[in-house]
Amino acid sequence: MPLKYIWEMPMANKIIGYVHGVLFILYIITVWLIAEKREWSTRVRVISLVASLIPFGAFWADRRIFARKVDSGK
Question: pTM of the full predicted structure?
Fold first, then answer.
């Protein structure tokens, strides 16, 4: 947003927003595919998707949920 409103560069904001949106969708697809393959419970799936909506929530989920799933083999 500073690029758009402070430095008056709206195109940079559009490009960054587009890339951010694509990366977010790829994250959601990746979580979905891994959840299907590893047969995660509905609770873990929902927590992992909700964590993606909170700033830095994916990093929290990586340490708290995904690391445990890898260690347990599921």
Answer: 0.69
